[in-house]
Design goal:
With about 325 residues, the chain is mainly β. Helices cover about 5% and strands about 25% of the residues. It has one domain (about 35-310): Sandwich (Jelly Rolls). Strands 1, 3, 4, 5, 7, 12 and 14 form a seven-stranded antiparallel beta sheet that branches.
């Protein structure tokens, strides 16, 4: 079963960060808290999250002041005649004007800032800025689909591993119109990602092979992840513990996480996160199954975060469809 490697679209320039005086000490003399850590248990007293990107700079770069380096991108199955927006650039999308009013051109409902009304995200109580989200839309994908993703430790097509073993999973807000309201959330690691082959080899981690003796294997890009349900009208907070993730069982290593033959924890060698809609031909055979149809999609993601381990129940609670 063959899968196309994501076609990455990147544009923009790196923002240079400059701090007056010490980069780690604020004017008051107190240690500076990295932007992603404002909603952590250390700051709020509530088991919470470390934010990977809150989208609020409107750029393709994730929050970088805590050591991660990465870019957002869009990708799709390259079906003839298909479209995806943004086709060039990055998927940051404005939903609020600088004054805080709904942007009249926005097709995405604004996400209410701060803690939600049902008590799922008390750690976001101090959140003030919710002007941007990551959004992608399109139609015509005849194969496995399309999506949006970001790297955690790399850019320009290079995907190096990031050690996320201090965390218990990922959390994010989502909304959108997609097939069956189901979104596949992939957590790429060095075993399943062909762009990370050299990094896996340096660490002695068994990995997929894109080609063997010159022939394509179709064994790469079967990433660990999970399907989740999103609403077309309401922003939903979703949490996925790492232990709830499994591969699609068609590539390498083709097993649930607990059964991985190399015993390398998923969280220790992550390279990225992807959000993917399902196309009509998930097997990528070139033939749309009877009763299936090409469907347009339009979805958005916000506040992508790592979950602190104290937020993970024992036993873990996995999202249900």
């Amino acid at each position: 079963m063959n899968r196309l490697s994501p076609t990455l679209t990147r544009a923009g320039s790196v923002a240079l960060l400059a701090f007056a005086g010490s980069s780690m000490v604020a004017c008051s003399g107190d240690p500076r808290v990295p932007d992603g850590n404002h909603y952590s248990e250390a700051e709020t007293g509530i088991p919470g999250v470390v934010v990977i990107d809150d989208m609020e700079d409107g750029s393709q770069y994730l929050l970088s002041d805590d050591g991660r380096v990465g870019l957002w991108y869009t990708y799709n199955d390259a079906s003839v005649g298909s479209t995806q927006e943004p086709a060039i650039g990055f998927p940051m999308y404005r939903v609020l004007t600088p004054s805080g009013a709904r942007d009249p051109s926005s097709l995405v409902p604004p996400r209410p800032c701060g803690a939600d009304s049902v008590g799922q995200t008390p750690f976001f109580a101090s959140e003030e800025d919710c002007a941007f989200v990551a959004r992608t839309s399109g139609t015509g994908q005849r194969g496995w689909g399309a999506g949006v993703g970001l790297d955690l430790n790399g850019e320009g097509g290079i995907k190096n591993p990031f050690d996320a073993s201090a965390f218990g999973g990922i959390g994010f807000y989502a909304i959108g119109n997609i097939r069956n309201n189901r979104l596949r959330v992939n957590v790429q690691d060095v075993r399943t990602t062909p762009e990370s082959a050299n990094a896996a080899d340096r660490r002695g981690i068994p990995r997929c092979e894109s080609f063997v003796d010159g022939a394509a294997t179709g064994r790469c890009n079967d990433h660990y992840g999970r399907q989740v349900t999103i609403s077309p009208t309401t922003w939903t907070w979703i949490e996925i513990p790492f232990s709830c993730m499994a591969s699609g069982n068609w590539g390498y290593p083709g097993a649930v996480l607990a059964g991985s033959p190399d015993n390398v924890p998923l969280s220790s060698a992550l390279v990225g996160v992807q959000f993917q809609i399902e196309g009509p031909d998930t097997a990528d055979t070139g033939m749309i199954p009877a009763g299936m149809a090409i469907m347009p999609f339009d979805f958005a993601i916000d506040n992508l975060s790592f979950l602190e381990k104290d937020r993970i129940a024992n036993p873990p609670v996995c999202p249900v469809l």
